[in-house]
Write a structure and sequence with these properties.
heterodimer; A: 258 residues; alpha+beta; Beta-Lactamase; 2 domains; 31% helix; B: 197 residues; Muramoyl-pentapeptide Carboxypeptidase, domain 2
């Protein structure tokens, strides 16, 4: 359902950010604006279809998304795949109606999942491999870890993938390791994860599931995979939402290998 | 807390190991030779090359056996040594698994093999990966990391079989990948030895 004018309060339209969708990615744009805690509306025109879209967000959270035909996450999922057209950012424009209400990262992940489901017509978290009785079991029909790690590396934004044992032994790594001392990274990750797990035990909460460490623009994302830990480094934290979504199925596959 | 590999490696690498007047190293309650790895590789390469085709498998088994016996007795000395007790045992929280982690960290510290545990099912199976080991750049045909095969089997026996010296030959180690044949790393799988017959 499209927004109509009565839902929009325009405070100040004197300063605009404009551009072409062929030159920038709408996901990057939304994450950039959210990272600086902007509030406002991105108004989009898709070419050549002539469809309009609007994304409203307030202080880092997406509140309302619509196109001529869709609203909410469905609309965001649609807009994220527009690659021809124009956009214009109108600061301080707010929407009274809320049809999303998620952080930018969360909204992007959910929209990406919706998009994948539309394409494949099945849940994306499903992997066509049969889990073993435990993380230590190796199955005959599994892909090998090198193949899975290389697939992870193909995700835009990831430049190093590493799997380390709980003792810090670097089991395997792929990517631009010349920038990173892989052995040092493995040792540091193992120390950090052990500290985090001890904290979890002390607090009597669930086992650690995810860890994100941001260093300025760069980010390291870690997850337990069986008895090991998988980590990816991304030099540009603005890609974290997509990286997290796209990497999920590969992490699940790695769980069966370690 | 578990055994942290970098801590073990840094601590053990500081220890100066010097041979005595007999050229032997009386560490860990066993005597160790301090000889270049190239000597072992050269011996293995020549004895394999000299063996007739039908006996090559038997000779290879003999090389693994030599490493195994050395690893079993030396390994017991290592994991019961004062050095190991001081450096590794304070970090042990996961029992046998941590002892094995410490043992493979020691391998790395002393330059025997840059290796570690990939998978471990207590008492049943262990998968080891090694990024460097004696035979990684040796001459010859096929998978031939005799030394590390023997050591992996020895340490699994020491950890999960009957107490030393009664637990020999409970497990067996097979090599599934090798740097010497072009794989990115060596991989070794230890499983329970099947009963004969």
């Amino acid at each position: 359902m499209p927004n109509n004018a009565e839902h929009i309060h325009i405070a100040d339209n004197t300063h605009f950010l404009k551009g072409s969708l062929s030159l920038t990615n709408i996901t990057d744009l939304v994450q950039f604006l959210a990272a600086s805690y902007k509030s406002g509306m991105i108004h989009l025109h898709k070419h050549p279809a002539g469809i309009e879209g609007k994304i409203f967000f307030t202080a880092g959270a997406i509140t309302n998304v619509s196109t001529d035909e869709l609203s909410g996450l469905g609309a965001l999922s649609e807009i994220m795949n527009w690659d021809q057209g124009e956009f214009q950012f109108n600061p301080d424009v707010t929407s009274i109606e809320k049809n999303v209400g998620l952080s930018v990262q969360h909204a992007i992940i959910e929209a990406a999942v919706l998009h994948d489901q539309r394409i494949t017509n099945k849940p994306t978290s499903h992997i066509d491999i049969t889990p073993g009785e435990g993380s230590g079991e190796m199955e005959m029909n599994q892909r090998d870890s090198t193949t899975v790690l290389n697939d992870l590396l193909m995700i835009p934004g990831i430049d190093v993938v590493v799997v380390v044992g709980r003792d810090g032994f670097v089991i395997e790594s792929v990517g631009n390791s010349s920038r990173v001392n892989i052995d040092e990274l493995g040792a540091s990750l193992a120390h950090a994860i052990n500290a985090i797990e001890e904290m979890g035990n002390e607090l009597k909460v669930s086992l650690f599931q995810d860890m994100f460490i941001e260093y300025g623009k760069a980010v390291i994302m870690c997850r337990p995979v069986g008895d090991a830990i998988a980590a990816v480094t991304a030099p540009d934290a603005s890609k974290l939402g997509i990286v997290r979504h796209k990497a999920k199925k590969y992490f699940e596959e790695l769980v069966l290998l370690f | 807390m578990t055994v942290m590999r970098d801590t073990v490696v840094k601590s053990l690498a500081k220890i100066t190991i010097q041979g005595n007047e007999d050229g032997l190293i009386p560490e860990y309650d066993v005597l160790e030779n301090l000889l270049p790895a190239a000597l072992l590789n050269s011996f293995s390469e020549r004895i394999m090359a000299a063996a007739p085709q039908e006996k090559k498998s038997m000779v290879a088994d003999g090389l693994v056996r030599a490493a195994y016996e050395c690893g079993y007795h030396t390994g017991c000395g290592i994991i019961t040594s004062d050095v190991f007790n001081d450096v590794v045992l304070p970090m042990v929280t996961e029992g046998e698994k941590d002892i094995l982690r410490g043992a493979f960290a020691a391998f790395t510290a002393w330059g025997w093999a840059k290796s570690g545990i990939v998978q471990l099912k207590a008492g049943e199976k262990m998968v080891i990966r090694a990024n460097d080991y004696y035979e990684a750049d040796s001459g010859g045909d096929g998978l031939r990391a005799y030394m590390l095969r023997g050591l992996c089997q020895a340490f699994f026996d020491l950890t999960y079989a009957a107490p030393y010296p009664d637990g020999m030959d409970t497990y067996v180690c097979q090599q599934s990948k090798g740097i010497e044949v072009g794989d990115p790393h060596g991989e070794f799988i230890v499983t329970k030895k099947q009963a004969a017959g």
